[in-house]
Specification:
about 425 residues, alpha/beta, Aspartate Aminotransferase, domain 1, 7-stranded mixed sheet, 5-stranded antiparallel sheet, about 20% strand
Length: about 425
Amino acid sequence: MREKELLEMCKEYTLRVAEYNQPPVFTKGKGSRMWDVNGKEYLDLNSGHMCNILGHSHPAIVEAITQSCSEFIASTSWYPTEKSIELCARIAGLVSPPLKPSILISTGSEAIEVALSIAKKYTGGYEAASFHISLHGRSSVARTLTPVMGHQGYGPLIPGIFTMPGPYCYRCPIKLSFPGCNFACLDVGFEMLDRWAMGQVAAIFAEPVFGAGGIIDAPPGYFKLLKKKCEDRGTLLVFDECQTGLGRCGAMFAYEQEGIVPDILTMSKTLGGGLPVSSTTTSEEIKQTIMERGFMHSSTHAFDPLPSYAALAVIDTLEKDNLIQQSKEKGDYLKAGFQKLAEQHELIGDIRGRGLFQGIELVRDRETREPADRETRQIHARCMDKGLFFRVTGMAPRKCVLGFSPDYYITHEEIDKALNILDDTLSEVEAQT
């Protein structure tokens, strides 16, 4: 009864899309588990909204929040606070030179907004581009940089922002194959951008693994070439590590695995371990230049103490418990399990991702690669009924990728349980098709 009552209240009092006003209604979480108001347990292979990299209610985060609540919750962004300074220093110790100074804000969308403001102020240009498989947020600038979302009905988007074909090799936008294509999608994208840009292009935005597009890995060498093309044009490269930063892909940052360093780095979800905090980090040279030109960005909760306490606890725990290595090792174990499932289930067309950030693309036919969007929805719903929580992602409107991003403490036994549930569910759905 409580669930029904809450869902009715949700429909009446909240502003949410209809598909989100449905059971379960979650009430608590601990480690890799969540419970709904009926007491049903779920194995969470999405770490909440991909934020709880230490799991739900980790003691270090609880302690940090408790300490902040007794000492300092919120301040004014006009003056520095102790913990926010310490957090920026810790971020500087994690990133690669020349990255160093950071601004702390609240959400990934805001971090993207700041990144574009920095790029505009530094380059003197106002145009930017992202890839057709990108999601960078839902505020005005971030929404314009997010082609995977529908834009109908929202009026004109931010001018001067372009979309380039992304490296979706399983469904190449220009119908070629790697490595024979020789990164043709990147050449086509820049040729179009060079022809349409009105002046200096300020920035190119990219995810080192394109999450909402379907957990898409670029082919080896792609980002090195992207970096060079940006440098040739005086354009800054922004890496959005909202989902991939702080060990999710088996390295502190996914850009390290690409052998490059972006000009601007944004983080959000993983940084707070469940609390809203984001950062935009750049080089000292870029900082000095934009400051001389009058750059300023702030908000009510910029550099606030509470999320800084939590983020410091996340970084401390990552290092103390060697969690990045665990992410890599458990990610290898998870992928090996997916590959075994692929040997048994024709619905599995492609397996992608790194560390504890992986996706399975489902198809009705491995030759034609017809998206199995209907089957994907059925599998997700049945797995939820069996107590396994993950997300469905991929290119709208035919989303057909099962996305998995569990917390770093997940055990092999929990992974095995998830694989068994998925195995049984795939068999059930295949038997009906």
